[in-house]
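hiii so my PI (J.) wants the whole complex modelled not just the main chain, which honestly fair. so below is everything: two entries, each one labled with what it is. i double checked the lines twice but i was tired so who knows lol
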Amino acid sequence: MHNSQTQTVVYEQFDDRTQQHEASSLGMWIFLATEIMFFGAVLTAYTVYRNLFTTAFEVGSHLLNTKIGALNTAVLIGSSLTMALAVHAAQMGKRKLLMTFIASTMVLGGVFLYIKFVLEWLHEYHDGLAPGLHWTYAGPQSGHVAMFFVFYFILTGIHATHMIVGEGIMTVLFVMAWRGRFSKERYNPIEMFGLYWHFVDIVWIFLFPLLYLLGAHGAH
Amino acid sequence: MSEHIAPRKLYYMVFFGLLTLTLITWQVAYIDLGKWNTVVMLIIAAGKAALVGTFFMHLRWSASMVRLVVFAALFWLVIMISLTICDFSTRKNVQPWQHSAAITQPMVPGIKC
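here's the output for the full assembly
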C-alpha cells in the first residue's frame, strides 16, 4: 500500500495497536449483543406462537420453497467466505484483492436480496400469502397460517434490512479501499464490518431451518 | 495475539463445512423424526453458527474480554427464551385462588418446564 498517505495508525487514547484492536472488537461485539437480543425477541415470540399453532406453522412452512431457501443459504455463506477473505486481504495489505473481495461480497449479497424479493416475496404476494396485503389462503386454520407468514415477513424483512444496510456500508468501504485508506497496519473498519456481515449470516443460518424446513417432512 | 492472521486454506475449509452442514440439514428435514426434527436442525444450526463465530469472526484468536461479551449475550438470550417458555407452559398449573378467565386455558399444551 505504497499510495497511502501518513494515516494515523494508533489513535492517541490507545497504548498500542493491540489495545486499539481489542477496544474496537469489544465495542463491535457489544453492538452485536444488542442485535442478538433484537432478533432474539422476535424469535422468542416465534417460539411461543409455534407451540400454540404447531400444525398451522408446519402447513405455512410447507408453502415455502426449501430449494430457494437452501440456495440462498449457500449464497450467503459464500458471501461470508468472500468477506473473511476481504479481511485477510486487508491484513496482508493487498489493496486490489481487498477491493475484489468487497465487490464479490456486495454482488453475492445482491444476489441474495434479488432471490429474496423477486423470486420469493413477489411470488408470495401474488399467491395471496401476504397477511394484511393480499391474503387468499383458504385452507384449514387460515388465520393461524397467516400468523406464520407474519413471522416469516418480519424475520426475513429485518434480516434483509440488515443486508441492505451492509451493502451501503460496503459501498463506503470499497471507495475507502480504492482511495488507499487501508493498509497492513490500519484495517479495523474492514474487520469490524466483517463481524457485522458474519452476524447477519448467522441469523440466516437459524432462519433457514426455522422458517423453511419446519414443514418439509410433513405430508399435510 | 489479537491480530492473528489465519491461513486462507482454513477459510475455505470452514466454507465447505458450512455448505455440507446446509446440505445435511436440508435433506434431514425431509425425514420424519417427529419432534426431533426441530432438535436436529437447531443443533446443526448451532454448529454452523459456531463455525462462523470461531473462524470467520476470529473468536478463536480473540481476547477473553470479547469472548465474555459473546457468552453474556448468548446467556441473556437463553434467559429470555427459557423463562418465556416456562411462563407459557405452566399457565395451566395454577392454584384455585389464582383462577381467572385469562389463565384457565393452557397456552402451550404438552410442555413441562
